[in-house]
Structure formats: structure tokens, C-alpha cells
Amino acid sequence: MVSELQAQSQRFLSQLAARGVAENTLKAYASDIADLIGFLGDTKQVIDLESIRSWLYRVLEAGASKATLARKTSSIKGFTAWLFEHKDLESDPGIRLRSPKLDRPLPKVATENALAEVFERLKASATEDSPVGIMTLCVMELLYATGMRVSELAGIDLQDIDHTRTLIRVTGKGDKQRMLPYGANAKSALDAWLKHGRPKFEVESSPNSLLLSSRGGRVGVRQLYDAVAKQLAQTNTGSAGPHTLRHSAATHLLDHGADLRAVQEILGHASLATTQIYTHVSIERLRASFEQAHPRA
To answer: Catalytic: 247?
Structure first.
């Protein structure tokens, strides 16, 4: 039974990979399914509703968070649905599994004034003799202007930029591509990087990537994360990273009247419900302003 399930899980994961499912998601599926199969082997049970519930109860007893429990439930629901679809199970036990309701804290957002101060400080340090300063400004401007993920920024190649129409092609989750517009400030920072910064880092073996490290290689996500976190740490935002710029871009767009579906397209969210969290941020900010400013609040 265990060996058969292991073979089935490999076929399931291979099909997910072929569909372009993100690597981290695949790793989570693989880990969760292997954990369940191990439990079934240890307890001599078959895969059914009761055995899955017993496994989840053990996970809960081990101190797993709601988020972990929800992820594991989702992984197994996907696996059992696939087994049923391929007639490896007579019925799908995952249909009756319920994921714990997650507490969704509002995203951390930097204020427009705080970001304005960051950009002014970066502009002063982005001189022609400081390629690192030029790149940091370019990174911050592009992340905030487009709302892209830091991994998407790290993956941009020179040919992905349409300078005439001020558009950048990024590759997001599931290898899905989208075109993102960027404004005048980001264009100025990008042009400065390409003219005065990137050539100083480029070597013969450099890839065609937009961003280069000081050694001429493609910049990694970790390096970008640290650079952004360092800048945001100098504001009242507190501990924050590149995703705060993504949250801030979405929230500020909605604050200034952008359509929710347009923001969904920019962020690359598959579901509008994911984007709607930013409307709650805007409402909370509006309520805070009202309570602070209205004389009868």
C-alpha cells in the first residue's frame, strides 16, 4: 500500500510540475504527502477520511500552526482528488476535509511620506561614482512603481524592458507572464542604472539580466531583500522587506482611486479575493484618519 501510494504521489507531483506549479509549492506538496504516507505505513491504515483526520490530529498535537495545518489539508485534498480522478480511489475523502479558518492580518504598508523620504535619500546617494547607490534606487523605484515580487525583479532580463512604452515583462508564479507599466521616476532610475551603474559591474561572462552584482553575476533574491530591508528600516514602518513595497504599491493605488481589477492584474493575483485584502487596508487607514481628525469622532 505504502509503495503504491509513493509511486502515485510521484506521478501526481510530476503532473503538477508539468503544469508549471511553483517549486516551493511542489516541495510543500511532496513533504506533506510523504508525511501522510509515512503515517499510514506506521499505523497500518489505508488512505480514507478517518486516517487523514488522525494524521492531521497528530500534526495539530505536535504544535503545528493554523497556517501549517491549512497547507497540509490543502495538499492532501489535492492529492486525494487526483487519486479519485484517476480511479485509484473509489471516493474522494478529501471533499469532507475542512481547513482551519486563518486569521489574516492586514499587510504591512509604508506611508507615502515615509517612502518619499527614502527616495529622496537614495537620490542623493545615487551618484555616477556609486553603482551600488544607483542600483538600490532603481530596485526601490521598480518594486514600488510596479508592485512586482522581488523574485520577479531578480529574473528580469534586458530584453524584457520595453523602453518606448515604459513596460516591463515579468514572470510570476507558475511561469505566468504579465506586462507592468512604470512611471517617470522609475524610468529615470532605470535609465541611470543602465547608463552609469550596470556597465561598471558587467564582465565578459555576465548574463543578460537587468540587475548585476558587483561581481558581474545575476543579483540574487536575498541580496535584493537585504538592500530593501535596510532602506525600510530607516522609516517608521518597522521590520519590513520587499513585500512591504508590493503591499504599499497596491494600497496607494487603491487610495488614489485605482480599480480593484486593475490592481489584481498588476499584482498577478489569480483570484480577486486575494487582492481585496488591500481594500481593507485602505478602509482601516481611512477610519484611522477620520478618528484622528474629525472633532466628533
So the answer is: no
Backbone φ and ψ for 258, nearest 5 degrees, come out as -70, 150
Spot the catalytic one: 149, 198, 247, 252. 149
**What kind and span of H or E run contains 218?**
none
Cα–Cα distance between 147 and 159 in angstroms, integer?
Answer: 20
Residue count of the chain: 297
Task: Provide φ and ψ at 250, rounded to 5°.
Answer: -65, -45
Residue 37 has pLDDT above 90, yes or no: yes
- Residue written as grid cell 506611508: 111
The catalytic residue among 77, 246, 247, 252 is: 246
243 assigned to active site: yes
Helix (H) or strand (E) holding 162: strand 161-162
Amino acid at 248: S
Question: pLDDT of 53-78, one tens digit each?
Answer: 999 999 988 888 888 888 999 999 99
Tens of pLDDT, residue by residue over 162-204, are 999 999 999 988 788 999 999 999 999 999 999 999 999 999 9
In 44-172, alpha helices (H) = 49-61, 66-85, 112-125, 131-146, 150-154
User: Active-site residue 11, yes or no?
Assistant: no
196 labelled catalytic: no
Q: State which amino acid sits at residue 194.
A: L
Q: What are the counts of helices (DSSP H) followed by strands (DSSP E) for the chain? A: 14, 3
Instruction: For residue 145, give the amino acid letter.
Output: A
**Residue 215 reports pLDDT greater than 70:** yes
| pLDDT tops 90 at residue 9 | yes
Question: CA–CA separation, 82 vs 25, rounded Å?
Answer: 16
Q: Which residues pair with 212 in a beta bridge?
A: 218
